[in-house]
Amino acid sequence: MLDAIDVEFQMFVDTKKASIAGPPYMGSRAVFAEALTARCGQAEQMSGNNREILARSNFIKGKIWQGHPEKLDFTYMYKALDLGYDEIQVRLRLGVKEEERGSKAKALEHFHRVIEVAGPDHPASARAAKFILDLRKQGVAEGPAERTVEERPAESWEYAEPALGPHAFDARVSLHVKLPNTEQSLVKAGIYGIGCVRCQGAHPIAPCENCGETSYRFGLSTEGVIGLFCARCRRGFTQHRCPECSAFSPISHETLVLKRDPPKAKSGGFFSRLFGS
Ligand SMILES: [Zn+2]
Ligand SMILES: [Zn+2]
Question: Could you tell me the distance, in angstroms and rounded to a whole number, from the CA of residue 115 to the centre of ligand 2?
Answer without folding.
Answer: 28
